[in-house]
Amino acid sequence: MKTAMIGLGATALPGGALALQALGNARGFTHAVASGEPAADSVLLWTRFVPADGGPVELRVEVAETPDFARVVTGGAQITGPWRDHTAKITVDGLQPGRSYHYRFVAPDGSHSPVGRTATLPEDGMKTWRAAIFSCSNIGFGWFNAYAHAVAQGGFDCAIHLGDYLYEYAPAHYPLPADAVPGRTPAPQSEIIHLADYRLRYGSYRADPDLQALHRAMPMIVQWDDHESANDSWEGGAENHTPETEGDWNARRAASIQAYREWMPVSDEPWKAYDIGGLATLFRTETRLLARTRQPDVAPLFRAADPVAALKAFRDGPWQDPAVTMMGSQQEVWLSHAMRASVRSGRPWQIVGFGTIMGATVMPPETQGWLAAMKPEARGYVSAGVAAGALGLPFNYDNWGGYPAARARFLKSVQQIGGNTVLISGDSHNAWAYDLVQDGRPAAVEFAGHSVTSPGFESSVGTDPAQVAAALVRANPELKWCDTSRRGYMAMTVAADRVTNEWIMVDGIKARNARGTVGHRATVLRDRHTMA
Predict the structure, then answer these.
(1) What is the pTM of this model?
(2) 370-381, pLDDT tens digit by residue?
């Protein structure tokens, strides 16, 4: 049996660092394997293989119940080549529900990829289902210890990534050199704008050993947020896109989507529902590139002759515009209908993944007294947030706080449909738990995840994190708990009578290790619509 040819995927350096210049002249199976899009009888399998001549190649995949592949139960084949960056995605079916499988790819020369483990979704009768939930993984800030911890812990049926799987910035921008971990600088040595750039950046991230281990250990349900394209992206542009120097936004957006679909174990469907047997329906959504309206910009209001009057006029007018949308009408209607079908089918839980937080969050008035301990670049933003918060306006308009009419439509739909809605969200880099309310009545629970590596409040607010968290909870009635200083991931367990979420806090990210502890646990009971 020939073994896989591993090229420049992850080159060891002194001190355990990695050279993440990922593609280069690598040949063979360059980035191990991954799986995704699980169903009760099928799953999508991914790999990347570059033959010696760099041309087209036909790959086969084998699926077995044991890692020795003594009996192959199904498989498939695909032709790949440079037109899709040598990646392959093969969906296999004929599998049994709620079952673990092993898989490997086979090249024409007889070499095999590393072996991966995947699993199908259950049918009715499963008692619990457990997912590890991640977001915001900036490789330059540190090691992906959250991934390592989840793999070491085991016991997960699936991973979910809610976005910012990678970041688009040039080296020395975010993170700044003082905050960067040596050896964690991805290719290319510039901001990613064109298709070749995005491919190189994915290759660099996928060279990370802990990310590879996560993908090899379990299937992943994945959706993008903004950094897979550019910061604060929307349908027609992004905060981090300058047409005059970086070209047409639509070209960049298309390049980011193409590379994402090449490199990630995800189908080309923009949104999707996953049936977790008789327990739940999980919904993957798209809230960035296809229909999102541009985020409100309140900065000019603070330069008005009367900023308070300007903010009030914005609050009572443009901020409430019903045409301002996160998902667009097509996806809103699809999601509403799909959630209603889930409820009618008897599924106890409707779990919706959003890239950004829905919970209403204003800047606490106490924050004004912390300015002296803040980084200078944060003081203006925080002062503006306090002033806006006094008028009931949020400090973040890139999340659902900038889209109140769309938020109200969604929550009213949830209340009308019935069932039990749990939101899982990312983006903020911090950990949050909300009881969401609409028209004075409970609507849903939101578990919002902290980042894998990206810095949170603690990076700019020099106040004791416990004081920060307490002030945020006091100022925001929907917010029941938060942690603004630690990195990690969420571990969600779904049972027929309850959904329990744990916020796992890793010991740190500046050195590679797989240690972590449960920082907080929250539970919502069936038909309660608020945390217990």
Answers:
(1) 0.95
(2) 888 888 888 888
